[in-house]
Amino acid sequence: MVYSYEIDGLPLQTGDILCTTDGTNRSAMGRFWQLFGLFVPGPIDHVALYVGPHGRCIESGPAGVTMFEVEGNTWDVTRMARQRARLADTLYGVAYPLAEKGFEPQQEEAIRLDVAEYCLQQALADKPYN
Description:
Layout: E1 4-7, E2 10-13, E3 17-22, H1 28-37, E4 46-50, E5 56-61, E6 64-69, H2 77-80, E7 89-95, H3 105-124
Antiparallel strand pairs: 1-2, 3-4, 3-7, 4-5, 5-6
C-alpha cells in the first residue's frame, strides 16, 4: 500500500525522499553534526526515505540501515534522537523522484512499493552504513 503523510507541512508518499542538513542549534550533539556537515559539499548532507505507515522512515546512518518514526507530523530531532543513533539534522525539504515522469498510476505505485520493500529488507537485515 502506498501511504501518505505530512511532515512540517510537506506532503509525502511512500518512496519520497526527505532531505536534511546536518546539525541543529538545539543541542551540543546538534552543533557537533553542524560541524560534521561542513565537510559535505552542498546544502543536503543526508537523506531518508519515507515508507509509511504514519511517520515511518528508513535511513542509512551511524547505526547502519535503520527505521525511525516521525511523530506528530513534526521533524523533531530531540524526540527522534534515540531512534536515529543521536543523529541531529534539520529538515531541508522533500524530493519527489517520481513527480512529472509520466508514469501510469499503477506503474508509479509499483515503483513506490518496490523501493520501499527493498529498503525495508535492508533495515531488517541489519545492514551496516554504506
